TrEMBL record:
Its main location: membrane. The gene is TFRC. Belongs to the peptidase M28 family. M28B subfamily. Pfam families: PA, Peptidase_M28, TFR_dimer. It comes from Ficedula albicollis. It is found in: Cell membrane; Melanosome. Homodimer; disulfide-linked. Stearoylated. Residues 398-594 form the Peptidase M28 domain. Keywords: Cell membrane, Disulfide bond, Endocytosis, Glycoprotein, Lipoprotein, Membrane, Palmitate, Receptor, Signal-anchor, Transmembrane, Transmembrane helix. Residues 652-763 form the Transferrin receptor-like dimerisation domain. Residues 238-311 form the PA domain. GO terms for biological process: cell surface receptor signaling pathway; cellular response to leukemia inhibitory factor; cellular response to xenobiotic stimulus; intracellular iron ion homeostasis; intracellular signal transduction; multicellular organismal-level iron ion homeostasis; negative regulation of apoptotic process; negative regulation of mitochondrial fusion. This is Transferrin receptor protein 1.
Amino acid sequence: MDHARAAISNLFGGEPTSYTRFSIARQTDGDNSHVEMNLAADEEEGGEIGKPEHLHASMPPPRRNGKNLCLIIMAAVVLLLIGFLIGYLSYRGRMQRVNRCLDGSGNCEMTPTASYFSDDGMEEEEVPGPRILYWPELRNMLSTKLSAPCLEANMRQREGKNSFEAGKAEDESTASYIHDQFTLFRLDDVWNDEHYVRLQDRGSSKNQVWSIENGREDLVESPDEYVAYSKNGTVIGRPVYVNYGRKEDFQQIRIMGIPMNGTIIIFRAGKITLAEKVANARKEGAAGALMFPDFSKNNKADAYVPFGHAHLGTGDPFTPGFPSFNHTQFPPVESSGLPRIPVQTISRQAATKLFGKMDGDKCVPDWTGIMGCKMTGNRNMTVKLTVNNVMVDRKILNIFGVIKGFEEPDRYVVLGAQRDSWGPGAARAGVGTAILLELARVISDMVKSDDYKPRRSIIFASWSAGEYGAVGATEWLEGYTTTLHAKAFTYINLDTAVLGSRDVKISASPLLYSLLETVMKRVKDPTKDSGNLYNRVGSDWIKRVVPLDLDNAAFPFLAYSGIPVVSFGFYDEGDEYSFLGTTEDTLANLKEKTDKLYDLMRAAAEVAGQIALRLTHDHQLFLDFDRYSEELLSFQEKLWHFEPNVKELGLTLNWLYFARGDFQRAADALRRDIANSDRENRIVRRALNDRMMKVEYDFLSPYLSPKDAPFRHIFFGKGSHTLQSLLENLMQLKVNVSSVDVDELKEQLALVTWTIKGAANALVGDIWNTDNEI
């Protein structure tokens, strides 16, 4: 070999003093692909280590003749053939293992190795690299490790407890337990987030509802339950029943010519939140409001009164737009979403008693459900409502644990669940908290025991004061509003994941539709011997996606911070869980509602877990930005019917259409950039992922103050800047032109148009690539 080397050197007429060696050196920052080039002198046998002898330097150059040349060529060919065979056999073996892994037939236990060289150039023994886990194996590992008995053990932590009110002893005790569990699971970091908030509690005397007839007062109900943030005081008014308290329900009352100013509005729970019902009643001039649970097949629930809150917003209403940290100097302002009228919840029994005393117009046919339902009371019959709630200052704790990503630890998915509840809260808070703990245990075990290395971080969050309108979650978002939208790419809500078993309820950002569909095809339906969840929801499930309401902790993540969200759960349509939000929301009653409680919890956990793992495992974020192109096109199709009415005002919808086209072209450009990019280039990959992450955030209107209009999302927010508000104004324009404020309509068109145009520009990436068609 020495002679061959010397011969080759002489063949090319040179006498090299060194040669090039490439060593694959494993870097401390986790990047194993770095190649280090070392220049070293030739090492010969017999030379002292570290001091190679250059034997050829002292040898006279041999004569070049034909025989030597032939031998040199033959030696070179033999060496090339040997090198080729070694490389081919090595490559073939690796590809066979990869194929077995990808098709699911192998165990995927590939352990790449790397050659190491010491500083003096001596080759050392090969060291195995980290085990590679492919997505099918990772998905199966999650499914195998999720345990129904562990979920049951987590649920039993709430047994025997009457209440977990935010900031009180049981809530703090549960927070401490969750903190200890996160620590036991060996999460990378565990910490608390303290907030000092103003909540409302029941007063020393109970709230009361009376009926007054011919000067005689009759106590209808005096419950322990109350509505947080209700105005205190006593009001008397004529009762008026308004079904679910929606805008269309109040419109029906107006059509019937029933006056509502100074009345006590009665409505049933469901369809929209209590806060929205109260806001509609207040807008009509009502003096007070009562709400009773919706009709149910479970007669046992007729005597129970639900807890609720009447703040039309999320977070602490006495620090709107500001985080409630202890060091914050709070301004003397209140949320505009406070109800300003007394509000109380009552039982179905009390509602039946009130309807029995009312003898006005009969209910609208599709509003019936209680025997003897009436629309109004007569002139001699009124209702008196007394509310004696008190304001309290409390410290609440959000508990966090994190599994840090190995490549991009500053990008993370958040899984969260409400911890507090007014009563036992088995369905309200117990199910979500149990799933949160189980996912933290399982995913941490996958990292610590099975060499799973997520690219991005996973945060587990336990919120407090969720019963008062996602207070804990909102205050955290407000505290870190300048950074979270650029770092958190998805929020997964685990609350109320099981309220029944027959149907599936989904609320999600369009960016996550494709991922959610893919996951449902891989999760077994626990209510059937065969089949998956996708077969249950059907191919048209997107048409039945439920909009997020204010009581859902995912709502502020989406509408306030512009972070994609998903909320998934089981329920029974038309036969709701009657004890939600009452003192009878116990484990026993929840198990009576469904005999597959823990199997359903496990399925919900698997859905949430797969979403979290897929988003942190893949090179490219599984965010389908093209979905918003479809959403915008669908909205544009709804506007075509109003073009003649808009033209009559001297306005046009063309600029809005152009903005939508710009977004479509920007989405196409991003798709091309992704297809043409080098996925192994971490810098390029991160830049493309960041562009996808910002899509949701860019639909927050930049022309509004987050303090005055916190829910700025034009698709899912609240206010005149939203697409829905614009559509409602155009519908009113078609009914009665004089009832529409033209200046307000112009402003709406401008806000929507330029928000969409801004989202298109941001999606393109570089300013020189933007489309300036508008």
